[in-house]
Amino acid sequence: MEQISDLQKNLLNDVESADTLEALEALRISVLGKKGQITGLLKTLGSMTPEQRKESGPLLNQLKNRIIDAVTVKKDTLEKAGLDARLKKERVDATLPVRPQTQGTIHPVSQVMDELAEIFADLGFAIAEGPDIENNFHNFTALNIPEEHPARQMHDTFYLAEKEESARKVLRTHTSPVQIRTMINQKPPIRIVAPGRTYRSDSDATHTPMFHQVEGLVLDRDIHMGHLKGCLEAFVTAFFEIDHVKMRFRPSYFPFTEPSAELDIGCHFDGDTLRIGEGDDWLEILGCGMVHPKVIANCGIDPDEYQGFAFGCGIDRLAMLKYGMTDLRAFFESDLRWLRHYGFAALDIPTLAGGLSR
Ligand code: PHE
């Protein structure tokens, strides 16, 4: 009995002098753990006579509980002390000035893409996407541009290295392959716009090897050029934020549309400023036409049942016209001065009016 009370005194002392949480935990394990001192003593109960057990059992259990309580109290104290120390050390000086922070801007191409998505969503179009690396089938063949057709040379195509000539992949030269992917994967009626990157080996003030296009495709029963014209008029007036636009279809040629046209819109110079919508000059805006019946058939849809229109428009050029940049190459040079000048506030929700009123 005396032994037990001596042991208790010693152990309580040890607990009290543990000065870190780690030391306390080590002590707890050495006393109460599986191979701990008290655990060991409790194990001896089994080999005692019933009388001895009756006497020692309660004492040992009491000892165990006292130590558990002492450890719990000590742990609490050490934790509180640790927190106090941290609070003192990590105090924040709220009077310090903040570090200067630079806020990024939205690139004009992203801004214009958001505007286009907004305009065409209002007209009931969904957004579609396709890969930048295309195969010949989607970029050319299905679009009625057969091999050896001069139109394949019309686009200065970037080819990827591949052993087999016929399997060579290309960087898509336009967004029109998304038309094909959509018609193969969806049933009409179809109404999509597909914005994205396109590539041609070309570089001057108005051409860069990588540029952006938005493709439009509508496929349904009884679609005609009147629908195309109405749709493009709604798009142009909304995009340039004007009430009326003078426009004309100029006959053109694309292998994947028949008839094909280029859309010109009226404009004039007001001093140095280009005014869009009215005037005696014409600006070429995009290529379009009625989807060629062969293209519709190439996608497994019956061209006698479904007709449609398509258009393809350069996004970067739209941005230049609306926001007044003169050199396309600067778009992709990542010059911070240019980006700060032409970029849009990052935290504003992109809106059409937000665009022009800056
Ligand atoms: N893909 C054509 C181009 O890049 C544009 C276009 C798209 C024309 C759809 C007609 C219909 O020049």
Please summarize what this structure is.
Helices cover 42% and strands 21% of the residues.
Structure commentary:
It is elongated, with a radius of gyration of 38 Å. It is 42% helix and 21% strand. It has helices at residues 2-17, 21-32, 37-43, 50-89, 108-122, 136-139, 150-154, 177-185, 225-240, 293-298, 315-323, 336-342, 352-356; strands at residues 105-106, 126-127, 133-134, 170-171, 190-199, 210-220, 247-254, 257-270, 273-276, 281-291, 307-314, 344-345. The protein folds into 2 domains: 2-89; 108-351, BirA Bifunctional Protein, domain 2, CATH 3.30.930. By secondary structure, it is α+β, with helices and mostly antiparallel strands. The strands form 3 sheets. Strands 2, 5, 6, 7, 8, 9, 10 and 11 form an 8-stranded mixed sheet that branches. A two-stranded antiparallel ribbon has the order 1-12.
